Amino acid sequence: TGLFTYDPGFTSTASCTSKITYIDGDAGILLYRGYPIEQLAEKCDFLEVCYLLLKGELPNGGEMKGFVTNISQHVMVHEQLSRFYSGFRRDAHPMAILVGVVGALSAFYHDVMDINSKEDRYISAIRLIAKMPNLVAMCYKYSIGMPFIYPKRKLGYAENFLRMMMGDPGDDYLANPVLVRALDRILILHADHEQNASTSTVRLAGSSGANPYACVAAGIACLWGAAHGGANEAVLNMLAQIGDVSRIGEYVNKAKDKNDPFRLMGFGHRVYKNYDPRAKLMRETCHEVLNELNLHDDKMFKLAMELERIALEDPYFVERKLYPNVDFYSGIVLRALGIPTEMFTAIFAMARSVGWIAQWDEMISDPEMKIGRPRQLYQGVTARDVKYISGR
Ligand code: CMC
């Protein structure tokens, strides 16, 4: 390959060094700052994990109190930004709106931002994490023509989000703690995942020195695709399409057929060649939520479990080490929470924002940082002369 290494899809290129997240894909291990995801999901809430990802250590009680206060000071969005929503068609996909409104934060926080200042970078991270639930819930409220619900400072992160999504000004929204915990767990499991496509996008955009909110908007755009964050929405659509356990075989065969572009959504991963540890935790949460809501006989969940069983026994999936990934069960949990399918990827974006901004901050503070600039192998025509149009 001459001067450059040709590596389509960057399957064997490390684009940076990082101290944030570690994955051992063969063993199915995921660590945030050295802590196993299973322990974080059991013993911490999402904001503790945010603190960990941003600062490198878990907070003690006092540090956590300060962090929560700091976040709660930034939960409101500028009223002018609220009006931004009305420029979108009501039937716009929430991810299309989210790309726009998060990018628009750069217009609100530009002059005050010096990316070379550690403090400015930290404040930009706090603002992003604080405002995302509000911005995401507003996408939904706008789509159904309901008034935006302001956040409540005293509520927890996940509870606040559920209230802004599901509540309305005419009622007192009372969140079920089991469901709040389930959403919080979804957020923890999606918070970071080293150099995935959207995080790499944020880093690449940020490597030019661009405003962090513009970079995060680029990450949101990348996350949208079905091969990445869009998979949670695609899984539910797929399950709905399969419709019945009796039709699973037909769809498994479709997924194996190389002349058919169909893939089993929520299956396979670039890095995990073993069970995705997040999928295991998500399946547990799925049981908890369905038990709590007396939905043991949920058709989608049964369908998903049977699909998993059949696929994991099939030589095609076994040989290629294709296991369920985090998005296989998260959609069923979100649906049980009453969240509409088209909002799933926006919730993934809300969770991943901390990872994006922590990785952006790590990159900017790295003395070895350079603008990202991959090379190519040119395969076009060789040099030739231009003729005037009359002679062509
Ligand atoms: N269904 C059927 N076949 C599959 C699937 C699938 N879901 N995933 C991979 N394969 C096959 C693929 O056809 C190929 O077969 P062969 O070697 O015979 O050509 C082999 O497995 C390797 O696949 P690949 O496309 O080379 O692997 P990749 O690392 O480029 O792709 C992936 C990883 C996640 C994009 C892919 O597995 C996929 O499309 N999965 C479905 C979408 C999905 O669930 N995405 C969510 C990923 S996890 C959350 C996130 O990151 O956002």
Automatic annotation (TrEMBL):
PANTHER family: CITRATE SYNTHASE (PTHR42871:SF1)
GO terms classed as biological process: tricarboxylic acid cycle
Family stated for the protein in its record: Belongs to the citrate synthase family.
Presence of the UniProt keyword Transferase in the record: yes
Biological pathway: Carbohydrate metabolism; tricarboxylic acid cycle; isocitrate from oxaloacetate: step 1/2
Annotated Gene Ontology cellular component terms: cytoplasm
Keywords from the named record: Acyltransferase, Transferase, Tricarboxylic acid cycle
UniProt-annotated catalytic positions: 269, 327
UniProt keyword annotation of Cell division present: no
Cross-referenced PROSITE patterns: CITRATE_SYNTHASE
Record GO terms (molecular function): citrate synthase activity
Organism this protein belongs to: Methylomonas paludis
Pfam families, alphabetized: Citrate_synt
Alphabetical list of InterPro entries matching this protein: Citrate_synth-like_lrg_a-sub, Citrate_synth-like_sm_a-sub, Citrate_synthase, Citrate_synthase_AS, Citrate_synthase_bac-typ, Citrate_synthase_sf, Citrate_synthase_typ-I
Domain of life where this protein originates: Bacteria
Coiled-coil regions listed: none
Reactions this protein catalyses: oxaloacetate + acetyl-CoA + H2O = citrate + CoA + H(+)
Name of the protein this chain belongs to: Citrate synthase
